[in-house]
Amino acid sequence: MNYTAKSRVPLGTTARTGEVCPESGVWKVAGTPSTTAPIAKGNRMPPYGGNAVTWSLIQYA
Question: Among 14, 15, 49, 60, which residue has the fewest nearby CB atoms (within 10 Å)?
Answer without folding.
Answer: 49
